[in-house]
## 1
Amino acid sequence: MDLLLLLALLCYLAGAFYSVIIFSARSEGPDRYLFTIIAAGFVAHTASLAAGWAQLGHFPIVNPKEVISFISWAMLAHFLVIRWRYRARALPTFVIPLVFILTLVSLLLPAPARPISAALEGAIDASQLTQVLFPLHVTLLIFSYAAFIITTIGGVMYLVQEHELKAKTFGAAFYRLPALNTCDEIGSRSLTIGFVLLTLGIITGIIWNNQRDGKFWHNDPKEVLALVTWLAYMLMIHYRLTAGWRGRRIAWLSIAAFVTVLCTWIGARYLPGYHVFG
Amino acid sequence: MSVVLVGISHRTAPVELREQLAFGDAVLLEALKELVDRETITEGLIISTCNRVEILATTSKHAMDGITQLHEFLERRHGCRPEMFERHFYSFTDLEAIRHVFRVTSSLDSMVVGEPQITGQVKQAFQLAQDARTVGHQLNRLMSRAFAVAKRVRNETGIGLNSVSISFVAVELARRVFDTLKGATVLLVGAGEMAELAARHLNSYGAERILIANRTFERAEEFARELNGRAIPLSEFERNLSEADIVLCSTGAPHFLIRPDHVHQALNARRNRPMLLIDISVPRNIDPAISAFDNVFLFDIDDLENVIASNIQEREREALRAEAIIEGEAERFVASLAEGDLNQVIGAFRREVGLIVQMEFDRSRKRLGELSPEQEQAVHVLLNAVVNKLTLPVIKQLRESEDGHSVLLEAWRDFYHRDK
């Protein structure tokens, strides 16, 4: 049992409860303790990841247990950066419970007998360069997924708030969710960050491919889906910049695009192909 | 000691009567002095606003006596007749008076429940009474508790959260769309009174650019100067529509001034940045069809009234929670008063007995002759023991007497406060 991760989990649990309480109480309660609690969890989580790396001797993002732990950590990192800019009180209520659930799943997943699959081990050890490229590839992509999760959350918050404003029935959500513009900005900033990371992640993957067997492209399902994801987000950014798409349309698109992320990330595991590890 | 309160408010008296009974700033100081100069009135405070006149006092005698004193005071100052007291005045004593003060300060007794001004007005009244030195220990305690209760009510309930006026609802809506109004542009089409008020509020929340289109251009210019805005001819307002984040429409025109094609063009020009349009004119000046556009939020006067109605309901629900808080606070305060009172009586009683014993000792001192320090010490220990033994059963009984307010306490209080 990873005690540091357990400590982080407890912090997230407290943070999740706290954020829900803050959300349900409409009056502007103090959220500084929330930040302290989450930050403590984040530190413990970081320490857990670092310890894992030192202990295992390999970059600790090679099996589902590790990947899920890492993505919840990346989400939190992204949230902490965003929080610094947008003090939207509703955002932690969406993010922290999700972080908690992911961390819990990671903690409950059994550690694989062989932490690193043979195929992947072979792939990493091919050369000095791939030893750098592999962690870079995975880290960039996971960070981009984390950013896209936040984009999606921004989109969902936007849609709910927009519905309240259009329906003119101001329920509980109206006063608690951030302003429309804020939802939109949280979504678009995260989108930009996520897209840059995704692009870099795909590029490092292609270089890594080439290093290993001289081929840039294998028609592997994960590769194809990654390309679809990249195109989806590219189009979103394109229409946002050129046609001035925003608001509801972008919010729906961000949800749709996130489905492609899920397909790429999880779906591809169940398809035969070259990306057997991951 | 009793707390007493006599007052009238918008609930019990028409405005003519309230006007007649109001204490203007000019006479308030002198009125306060007159109030505490009355027999048995020890401390006094007068809250006089357009919705209420409240006279709060403490009396050294029974509560009913205090009420009579306050009635006499009002009779002398305003010529109030006995039947007026019956019909328009309420009078409260002790727990009820304290609860009333808490309710008033927390804005539960206000015409618009939760409106924030009253707390400030009570603070002012208290400040004035402090300056006039007509409040002492008791009312200081009561009022500082009242302000703490008001704060608690504000923090723990949503009583003041929802806007209940059109201009504030407009601000609230704008903030739900744009978050901060800094840098937002407001376009007024028609500079009616309500639109002006809303524009002022939006301005005070950060909307700096204000464009004003009005049928009489001079009126627009006048208002523009005041708010540091810009006047534009009414016939050309469509051209400025794309600049406007918030549009407030309130002309007397009998037809739609803002039509879907206008808004469509404006949206294109502003690259779909959201627009909030508020139409407070009757008949409406903005075609409701524009509601169908993305990134456009239109509210007409009925929508705003609906928001206000549901906000008032929400406030009333929250007011129930506030009442519960106040009930608890008032009871606790009365309990602490009684305790303070009890301790005072016990202290006075012990001092009194101690003094008697000391006096008797002093009288016999000479006959005792020279005493060594040890002997002197022993005598003091002995006397102390006698005082303790004598007073202890009485104190015990007082403390055990229910809520410290028994006949026993009254008797001892009368006995020991006789000459004060």
## 2
Amino acid sequence: MTLSAQSLAQIDKEVAKYPADQKQSAVMAALRIAQVEKGWLSPETVEFVARYLGMPAIAAYEIATFYNMYELEPTGRHKITVCTNLPCQLQGAGTVADYLKQKLGIGFGETTADGRFTLKEGECMGSCGAGPLCLHNNHTMHTHLSPETVDKLLDELK
Amino acid sequence: MSVPYTGPKVCLWTLDHPNPASLDTYIANGGYSALRKILAEKTPAAEIIEQVKLSALRGRGGAGFPTGLKWSFMPRNYEGDKYIVCNSDEGEPGTFKDRDIIEFNPHQLIEGMAIAGYTLGAKAGYNYIHGEIFALYESWEKALDEARAAGYLGKNICGSGWDFDLHAHHGYGAYICGEETALLESIEGKKGQPRFKPPFPASFGLFGKPTTINNTETLASIPWIMRHGGQAFLDLGKPNNGGTKIFSVSGHVNRPGNFEIPLGTPFADLLAMAGGVRDGHTLKAVIPGGSSAPVLPADIMLGCTLDFDSVAKAGSMLGSGAVIVMDETVCMVKALERLSYFYYEESCGQCTPCREGTGWMYRVVHRIERGEGRPEDLDLLMSVGNNIAGRTICALGEAAVGPVQSFIKHFRQEFEYHIEHKRCMVGA
Amino acid sequence: MPRITIDDQQIEVAAGSMVMEAAHAAGIYIPHFCYHKKLSIAASCRMCLVEVEKAPKPLPACATPVTDGMVVRTHSEKAVQAQKGVMEFLLINHPLDCPICDQGGECQLQDIAVGYGGVVSRYAEPKRVVKEKDLGPLIATDMTRCIHCSRCVRFGQEIAGIMELGMPGRGEHTEVMPFLENHVASELSGNVIELCPVGALTSKPFRFGARAWELSRRQSVSPHDGLGSNLALHVKDKRVLRATVVENEAVNECWLADRDRFSYQALNGADRLTQPSVKDGGRWLEVDWQKAMAQAAGALKVILAAHGGDAIGFIASPHQTVEELYLFQKLARALGSESVDTRLSRADFGGQQSGIEWLGMPVAELSTLDRVLLVGASVRQEQPLIAQRLRQAVKRGGQLNLVHGADADLLGRVANKLIVRPSALVNALAQVAKAIAEAGRDVGAVAAAIADVGVSDAARNMAASLLSGDKKAVLLGALAQQHPAASELHALAQAIAQASGATLGFLIDSANAVGAGVVGCRPHQGGLNAAALFAAPKKAYVILGAEPELEAADTAAARQALASAELVIVLSAFKTAATNYAQVMLPVAAFAETAGSFVSMEGRLQSFRAVVPPQGEARPAWKVLRVLANQLGLAGFAQDDVGQVLAEALPEGEAGVRAKLNNGITGVTVSHLTALSGIERLGETPIYQLDAYTRRAPALLATADGLGGQTAAAHGDLIARLGLVVDKPVKIKQGGGETVMRLTRDDRLPDNVVRVPGNLAAASPLGPRYGDIGLEKM
């Protein structure tokens, strides 16, 4: 198990942000980079990252399980995380979430049979003014969602 | 006070320009001049802190602690490394102001952090950015590159011989990291679990070194204060509540969004700026300072001005300035259920009252919402809340209790109806 | 010093101490779970909330520093209300399964709940259930009972030096667990059993063995390494069912090594020797004591008559008590033999020693050393808690330097390392001495011999390290003591210590090696040492507790000598391989079954009582020796109890011990400066093969260390070069002997070195622990 040269270069760049004896500081970024490459964090990936940063594997696993944007199981190609917290809910997140569930035929925490979509319930993404909103694969936010914009988004995600 | 507010803005003024985030826009409008001046004149740190104190700038992250006072806690003659940390882990439901500063005025934050770094003798600074706004983590790193290229960061800044650098660190899905010591743990590559205090970060902070942590909006206000003076900033607001403040309005309004207005503006004016309560509906309740702030019924809220003191007097908190507006269609049991779930889900699990108590409260509220409530449940919730509040390592305990106790206090009859009739009285 | 008022008592406490410590000093108990005086402060259980005047909220006593004039109330209404609130939270998700919980009766949660818990639960929601974890053969889990105090996790990080347990997850979903399905492998892991305040982590070997209140708890001393850890043996129905720590800050603090905790299993094993036996026409017959003693005495008399006392060799284990060893050497001398020894694993007895080897300083001082040079020591295996002390020293800023025959992960920062093949150890240490000489210090007698040694950078850095700092020590471990040129290493270490102002110390690997020396269990004028006793076989041997076929420096030689002897009398607690060569086997009491004393490596004399009677017909060895002497008609063996023996052995007690301790050596010429060229053996003793008890404790042997200690190991490069296969059996040849062992890969070994452990049955046919060896593919 290893990561691509590109991922390792990205991790090295993160490591360089911190004092030399504080490599562990880069673990959040390193796990994120590894997850982008592999799609999810297998135990082997977590262990690799830990060893790369010179920290105990269990300490890296603590990180991977504490922060909820890390995936410890394989997900669909497109992970859609919908914020359902109160402000978004007031602005219609419930309707959007129900629409997504109905359209994809899955509930929160589930993946479509074709492996295309995983639907997740998210907590506040700090962008409530633009709700309802969702994250696509953690890093791309889609705002002002409605059944119409959801249709458009799902069509774009092959 | 006119609606909309047309006076000076401290943070979001770049939005009036075509390329708000660009270095050129920033510099063309006086950006980095405060840093240049301080470095050229070697302004003593004490003088800078004096101006910040004069400005009555209070922490914009939610606690409202006077910034100048916080800065004065940093040890002056400490031999080793010191750090400045910016808290952009904006995840309090209803709050979305810092993201706009990072997106639309990144350089003012950089300049503010650099001035703070200079004043506090920091070796480097980190900006901890909420994981869910990852695009802004990347865009702010680009702004850092621009600033470095332009000589505002790195070695020998502006030819002054002073070295200082900034870095971005992202979260990845944990509300608790907005708590400043959990944030430090998270930068150190650990679970974001708050530290007990003392020791405080000013003596034992990041990597065990003296550290000052300020909110994004707080740090972004610093260049304005240094350019215009502390008095001018104070004059923008009201005594003890200096400056403008960004209010994030969400929920049942016609135009949710950020509004930078002077502290002390009446709530009714802000509501008007946000287009008023959604058409055809009436105001029922407002959470004035992010989800952790106690909810206030419409009549109380309409009598408030938006400053730390007035909202506190009304029994809530100005907090981060996140105003969640609810109209008459809202079932308060269901609203509380969602907030209780949030705190249960986000409790770090470190200390007993929060780890066990948030789950307990959520399960009881959830039961009531499902129509399985018991008459004794409301007293139980109040009592469990009392056993959490004030007994935890960090403020998440209080934050979880605030909604529960305030919802029951102000809307008890709705909860009783749910328990008795096993359904909602809204729309009944 | 700040003065504070706590529960109306006015006391002065040290500045910087916490309210918890102040309360402790005042004799006031504040309930707590996560707080532990030896671990970092977590302040997370919140059980210790107390009322502090002028503070708006109750504060955790464990994390609140005292200030002058502070007024603390630990049992006021406000404090108790807070404590009761926390207790309610702790109990809502804790199973009410005390009747089937091994912790029941000695559970902090149970105890405190009696004082602070409610009678009726207000919690009506479903309780949490946590998936079970398998932590290996030593620790049983019931993680649903966990209250998240994090003591076990902090212990790993801070004391054991290795984070094997963590707390993945968040909120109430947080669970204590290892990474994946890993077993816990630390040699100190069992301490979490006692640290755990509830029944989440309990002893697996003990599981369901007894209820806490059925056990009588009796104090004893660990019979393994030279530390002399204080422990309590828990007894039910005359059997030892478990061991727990007895705190002694000067010795083991509040920790035990796993072998101290679990070796009691050997006491209850099936291979105990419980009946006197004599060999009759090639067959073993169980006989009564009278017959056995008559036969032993008679056979000895035959040897005496034919060859004289000098023809009898006396070999004892350094894990026997002071009293036993005293009578043993007295018997030898009364019979006219000076050939009595306990130093089985030692190969080189060169030079003149000024006294009995010892640590050279109090154990507790190890934690405060600024500079340490460890020579030939796998200290985690040899003295697990000494390794822990050294880690504390490193944490405080101390520098640890290692000269060794294999790299070892000490779980702490090592400032400089010089890892060489065992035969190059003298050269490596000479480099350090020379570097010190080059820095202008006088290294005395060794100077001339090392004049031509080339100095490596690592040696130079070590010299610089040792020439700085304040409190320093040069410590010789098992490899240095067992080395074929041990006396040269000793002389070099002495030179380095003297030139750098360090204390010279020996890390003693057995419980009573120092005591053995002090009571004269050593050959004097005209006697043979343990190695010579086997190299030039005697007509007869009397063996007390030792298993020379496993423990000798050259087991092949020992086997041959014993097999060819006319008479071998063995006093043992176990049915050992001596049945192959002995004529008389006399069952003696094991540790825990006899009163006695050990002298630890720091010269501490620790006496203990028997906690259970000997098994079967076994009798305390001191009594057996006394009766044997009586049967032989020897004078001076009329002691009535073990106290009389001790008074005779050490009339001045500990002071008498101290007078004999001296690490000086003279008369050594350093000459082994050139290493071997072929493949050589590294024959250190694995952690759980140390003595008769550890090697018979199934749970210890099932751990990673236990299993690993039963394999051969080599560097991957050597394995590849020889065309060998990892994890497959390999043929090992040494001298005329050969054996087959499973081969594992260990890249921390130097090239051309094969670890073939000593003290191991599989390695018994082989020759010396260190020296040329051959490997062949099967």
## 3
Amino acid sequence: MLTDDQVRHIAKLARVKLTEGEISLFSKQLSDVLDYMEILGEVDTEGLLETSQVTGLLNVMESDELRSAQSTREELLDCSELPVDSKQIRVIRVVK
Amino acid sequence: MTKLNSLTIREAASGLREKKFSSEELVTACLEAIGEKDGEINSFVFVDEDGAYETARLVDKKLADGLTLPLLAGIPASIKDLFNTRGVKTTCCSPILRDFVPPYDATSIEMLKEKGMVMLGKTNLDEFACGASTESSAFGVTRNPHDLTRVAGGSSGGSAAAVAADLCIYSLGTDTGGSIRQPASFCGIYGLKPTYGRVSRSGVTSLASSWDTVGPMAKSVDDIAIILQAIAGRDRRDMTTLDVAVPDYANFIGQDVKGLKIGLPKEYFGEGIDPEVSEMVKNAVKKLEGAGAHVEEVSLPMTKYAVAVYYIAMPAELSANLERFDGIRYGKQAENPEDLMDFYCKARGDGFGDEIKRRIMIGTYVLSAGYFDAYYKKAQKVRTKIIEDFNLAFEKVDVLIAPVSPYPAFEVGAFEGNPLALYMADALTIPANAAGVPALACPVGMNKDGLPVGLQVIGPQFAEGLCLKVGAALEQL
């Protein structure tokens, strides 16, 4: 069972602000899900390799050809709601 | 005369060439159907009336000029709102992307546009395609056209309902753990999850990059083949697409199934499966047997572990992929943040719905120090065993046939507050994603309550043609 403090910690790692109500709801729900995962303990996986992709591709190389961009600089800048300054997005101050 | 909006691609394409009607009239028929029915169904999140008419008129002009056009030219389609569509809002049905207008098209959209697709609009899905019922959409649930008290399935629920209710001729969806097949089955239409890497994922918002696939949803197997033909192939913008030759899929339609070896995986017909669903799927298989196919029982013993594997690996990949939604590059910015950390946490806390929060927290947890080996690595090893199951089965049989979902469409709200129970809804669809093999969902009729039931034809990697051949044979029997 995950404690409320553990859920707070995971939420911080995931960069999600939760309300107190969400914390108690999620600690129950996430615990149920993680408890269920214990079922994998039944499977003997000794010596098996992990699968991270399924079609056997290895290094995929591509010729270095110039291609036209799919979008203009202006279109890309338009994606953010933040103010644009000198063709850059202005974010909040990081260094105090 | 049949209503224009209820035609298949093949029928609509012939009608256009025989000048029985125009693309503009096809669009009008679909828009009228949307106006009439979609208030209740809620399958579209955005209808692009002007854009649709503009493309339709262009196609009509080309046809009038006597040009030879691709089959898909002038045919009205709907697109799951997970695909980037240039200049047309793409929300992933999440509050965090509610105003996002992509500056480019997904490769599959680009390919369909080259073939003259008329895009009617964008369809509803579970937020970031995480769900099996389209209930977690920021735009509200999509209801099943066969019974409005029930869900259309998910996550491509909007696409499935729109095709089933004849609000469009076909649709494009995505399938990470069953999101094309399960809603197709719930709504009584066809849906194909292709081999992993057969269709480009470029421009489609990534959930779990090693599981995600893009595929067609339509009213006939023939139509599925036509759409797949248009979108399959290597794409240099998606390095996981393979340089495997794309066959002429139409050639597989109408082929004899005599001598074909069909495996029925016993785990897909056992405990927890609605007996009526099992019965209906087995009856359909009997028809194939009658047509000369050989049927035998096979075993995929790892099936019962698929849900656990998926709900570790999928959230892990999802949590990494959704890191980009930080309120800076996309999404609504946080108000009065204390510092940058607070900015991120507020933007994401306000911008994501509950199911996304749950999944990115599960993903973050299973990837964190101390839990990585126990959860994530273990799940990836069991995934290897699931793949071995399929490899062994395909040494004995050509295709597998099984139910798509343990039960038909359930009532809206049936799983409220119990996410784990809803995760189990994917139990029979996840294994094909785990192994990257293709699977075609086909309707087999209505149960006693009048709800559609579907089966899936699962083939080895890149055997989409074989799945289509079996699906087409079933369609004819």
## 4
Amino acid sequence: MLYKGKAITYGDNVDTDVIIPARYLNIDDPEELAKHCMEDLDENFINKKTKGDIIVGGKNFGCGSSREHAPIVIKVSGISCVIASSFARIFYRNAINIGLPILECPEAIDDVDEGDILEVDIEQGAIQNITKNKRYKAQGFPPFIIEIIKKGGLMNYAAERAGSIE
Amino acid sequence: MGMTITQKIIAAHVGKSVVEPGELVLVEVDMALGNDITAPVAIKELKKIGAQKKVFDKGKIALVPDHFAPNKDICSANLCKVMREFAYENNIENYFEVGQMGIEHALLPEKGLVVPGDLVIGADSHTCTYGALGAFSTGVGSTDLAAAIITGQVWLKVPESIKIIYKGKLKRWVTGKDLILYTIGQIGVDGALYKAMEFSGEAVKALSIDERFTMANMAVEAGAKNGIMEIDKKTVEYVDKRAKKPYTIYNSDEDAAYTNVYEYDVKTIEPQVALPHLPENVVPVRDIENITIDQAVIGSCTNGRMKDLRDAAVVLKGNKVHPYTRLIIIPATQSIYLQALKEGLIEIFIEAGAVISTPTCGPCLGGHMGVLAKGERAIATTNRNFVGRMGHVESEVYLSNPSVAAASAVKGRIVHPEEVVVSAI
Ligand code: SF4
């Protein structure tokens, strides 16, 4: 799976409260929720993102609460993939479980600037910076994780394995 | 390179001979656990895809209404009902109705549902408790639980391990709770992030199984994925009395890799207290001066077992709870409650002026049975003292072992048990 888009960069410790502030958690509709994605960190996010863009974060991306809303709003915003030096444990699980592709790649984080055009191969863990003409190597995912992401999340994957899709 | 106990258990559940830290694997679970808060969310997910009757194995799912049960209000009654109906429709063998239940992490081992070598996931962060029996167990989200209920599988990243060796002999009044609080104070609330915390050394071997549960329970408070311990005679004795299935003993290889090894001499460790609002804010109880308390809570999945109640009884016997303080004691399961009754502990508690509650998480998460008002302060044998954890955002929770909590209830301020039990050895 290849994802291509421009980089939107943030720093370390982007927490789930800035990704989606708690005051919006009573909103049920993901599209509505996504209007507030990154609001407390970057008011401009909503206007500057275009479909397929790639968020590039630093260390401990997604730390804080276990709310699955956080990866959901990023996905619904049209972000194709998130790259960070490291992810908080529960965000990491939740992102994969809801079908948001993520990659850990400290090397890319130091190098990528906002607006760089990136191409990411999730299976290989390969990141290409087209703007800077550079390549970075991250760890790829085993086939079942790729399957979960391809199916759009863990529930779809599990349902199929349990033979429950009517 | 050898493997740690954690690696070995995961490998066995992937069907491989070796797994390496960092590897992502799909494992078969021996037990998937949910409670009255998290299971209803998972059941909703299952209903969305029409899989609410596709349970992978009705003997390998445990559902326990413990957080807000007996139902504290209409919302919690509805949640419990969702879980109950799901359990009945699917003939879930390990659904524990009020009257049978207890706090999930005390209940499952007691019922023999978790044994050494098992791989257990639970939609509750303190699922790590079962590491005390040499099982791999970890907390996951509700989506993970939903998927596990229908597939029997969960994906995991094999964690690196850190090893903590406790040497020497414990002082009087010092328990497993003090060792884990001390450790979190040393390494911090992210000191074991993503990792397995392996507890070892003669001082751990000397602990009762109840105290070992306490230690593994709080591994998550240091950010760990799981806490785990070697299996010894005491473990085998505990398990053989209860186990409902055969089990496998794994131990770490001598040349297994650890990212860090810490060694503590327990001789110098005093009873510890974690000050608000993080479990890492740990000080010896002797350093605390004149902190008055409105409430003391003895219970929870951390310290609501027999050893804990016995420790509290030693302090409370013949004493009275301070007139300005409420003492709430919550045996973690029905059989602990019954045993405490038989041993005369409940009588000691009531005579001292404590209230006894039926098993429930209750005040531990600010749910019910002892929620704090604005500005109130409590000492509790629970595991988290985050802002607002036990009630109002401007209330405070101090964490300690049961003897310290009981002694503090008697004095109305945080004290060393020695101040109450003068004649003890
Ligand atoms: S007793 Fe407290 S920490 Fe334990 S499961 Fe219940 S709410 Fe969670």
